[in-house]
């Protein structure tokens, strides 16, 4: 972890929160020539931004809630983001089994027509009808037809990390494991108090951006001692992970009797991820976890659709997150708007401004950041033009195709297994050479912790991607967490403790 200089530096923008919205804004602002500081109290993406359904999608069901602005923007963003980060984002076909008692075919076809035409679409294929043969189909035999359309799947936590890396490369200072404990306006600047394991320090900033996700309103009330301009609805969503339910790389979108939809999505080669739920959440966002009701609900929806019948015993893992949604006073948690609202506040015109982010989706983070910059333009009239639409994220530079990169890795690194080459190519893209550059064989990669994770990659993640502990590496950066045994995790923890000690000694020297 890096610490800022002891002197009270004044940044143009200080961002609170290292989820997708915070890093997206930090990156956009840094690229426009502003000096930027971002603090994250835990690891990057350790909360909502790693607990998503991992889709870059227009949101077919939001059409039913008449969220046309959001759907149009999100649909267009699919291809923009796909081009920016083809290693961590991939097109995916979605199959919606037809359940005539829930939604008539004409309604779904109309929705899909809008979905195909509302946003710009060049690479993603359009929708079509499908029929299922009882013998081959993984679905229950009463489901004989359905619809198919395109969206994209993303490695959500890596999308956050790549944006943070790009922000840093443009001069932003990103500090993790560092909480902003309070901030006060002092005339035209903010004085921010930060706390981490090493102690406390202060920074100054001309503008404060509150991208604290589920903590956005709490941060305003408790740490800034101000009134929040909007209410926030915390809506929990959970997923279960089970062994692969069916072959192939398509996802299913299942309609449930309560009018909600639930996805079954291929996950990490060996698994299927089933989710999500929508329930009001009143607890501390740090502590969110799946409830027995949610587990039963997801198993029921899956069993209503698939031949393979699941029970709790089949669940390999679960994860839950809290959507920080802007309160639109909707009665139904599933219907609360998924759109974002940015609130700019100043008590007097000469006061340092506060920009708070309410709601949002992974899919629309880049547009949200552009919109944040429009709000800040009047305070920084000299800032550069929007730039993120065309800019590649780290790892997408010089990347002809992920398949070619996999072959290149296999040719250059003797003894590497295909699964590891695929994982490296998808996680790091062309940046994989940052830690493989001088390597000709897996035997040169240092200690092997299991499942293709070697010391050289771990060192890279600590030095270049803010990783501190085994969760940072296994859950959010390599997604190897489902493979590692407790003993293997212990070995990795031990190595990390020694590595941090070595780095500390180097810093002192
Ligand atoms: C179940 C579920 C499924 C979803 N699926 C999708 C999907 O498929 N596609 C999609 O586009 N979107 C999806 N979303 C929405 C998307 O995940 C969220 O909109 C997005 O991740 C919110 O990001 P954020 O940066 O606002 O919040 P977060 O990711 O929670 O980041 C906020 C960060 O602020 C930090 N923080 C808070 N207070 C402080 C402080 N005082 N000092 C320092 N740091 C602080 C927190 O530690 C946290 O890391 C889903 C959400 C959920 C819950």
TrEMBL record:
One of its GO terms (molecular function) is glycerol-3-phosphate dehydrogenase (quinone) activity. Coiled coil: none annotated. It catalyses: a quinone + sn-glycerol 3-phosphate = dihydroxyacetone phosphate + a quinol. Residues 12-332 form the FAD dependent oxidoreductase domain. Residues 388-483 form the Alpha-glycerophosphate oxidase C-terminal domain. Belongs to the FAD-dependent glycerol-3-phosphate dehydrogenase family. This is Glycerol-3-phosphate dehydrogenase. The gene is glpD.
């Amino acid at each position: 972890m890096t610490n800022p200089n002891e002197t009270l530096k004044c940044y143009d923008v200080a961002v609170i929160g290292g989820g997708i919205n915070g890093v997206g804004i930090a990156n956009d602002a840094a690229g426009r020539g502003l000096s930027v500081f971002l603090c994250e109290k835990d690891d990057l993406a350790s909360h909502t931004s790693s607990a998503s359904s991992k889709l870059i999608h227009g949101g077919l069901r939001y059409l039913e809630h008449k969220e046309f602005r959001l759907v149009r923007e999100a649909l267009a963003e699919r291809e923009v983001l796909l081009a920016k980060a083809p290693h961590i984002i991939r097109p995916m076909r979605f199959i919606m089994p037809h359940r005539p008692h829930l939604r008539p075919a004409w309604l779904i076809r109309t929705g899909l027509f809008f979905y195909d035409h509302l946003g710009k679409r060049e690479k993603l294929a359009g929708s079509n009808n499908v029929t299922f043969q009882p013998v081959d189909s993984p679905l229950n035999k009463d489901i004989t037809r359905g619809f198919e359309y395109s969206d994209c799947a993303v490695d959500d936590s890596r999308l956050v990390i790549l944006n943070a890396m790009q922000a840093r490369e443009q001069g932003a200072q990103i500090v993790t494991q560092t909480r902003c404990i309070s901030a006060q306006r002092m005339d035209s600047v903010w004085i921010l108090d930060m706390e981490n394991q090493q102690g406390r320090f202060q920074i100054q900033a001309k503008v404060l951006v509150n991208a604290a996700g589920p903590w956005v309103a709490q941060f305003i009330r408790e740490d800034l001692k101000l009134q929040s301009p909007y209410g926030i609805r915390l809506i929990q969503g959970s997923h279960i992970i089970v062994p692969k339910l069916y072959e192939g790389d398509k996802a299913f979108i299942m309609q449930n009797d309560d009018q909600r939809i639930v996805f079954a999505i291929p996950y990490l080669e060996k698994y299927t991820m089933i989710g999500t739920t929508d329930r009001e959440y009143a607890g501390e966002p740090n502590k969110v976890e799946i409830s027995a009701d949610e587990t039963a609900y997801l198993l029921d929806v899956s069993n209503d659709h698939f031949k393979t019948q699941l029970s709790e015993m089949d669940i390999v893992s679960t994860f839950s997150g809290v959507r920080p949604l802007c309160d639109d006073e909707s009665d139904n948690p599933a219907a609360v708007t998924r759109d974002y609202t940015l609130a700019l506040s100043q008590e007097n015109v000469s006061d340092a401004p506060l920009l708070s982010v309410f709601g949002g989706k992974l899919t629309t983070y880049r547009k949200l950041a552009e919109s944040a910059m429009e709000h800040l333009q009047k305070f920084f009239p000299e800032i550069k033009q929007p730039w993120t639409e065309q800019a590649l994220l780290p790892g997408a530079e010089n990347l002809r195709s992920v398949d070619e990169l996999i072959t290149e890795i296999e040719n250059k690194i003797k003894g590497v297994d295909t699964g590891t080459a695929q994982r490296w190519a998808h996680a790091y893209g062309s940046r994989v050479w940052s830690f493989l550059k001088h390597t000709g064989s897996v035997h040169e990669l240092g200690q092997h912790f299991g499942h293709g994770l070697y010391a050289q990659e771990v060192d890279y993640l600590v030095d270049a991607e803010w990783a501190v502990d085994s969760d940072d590496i296994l859950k959010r950066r390599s997604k190897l967490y489902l493979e590692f045994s407790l003993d293997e995790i212990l070995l990795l923890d031990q190595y990390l403790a020694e590595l941090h000690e070595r780095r500390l000694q180097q810093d002192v020297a």
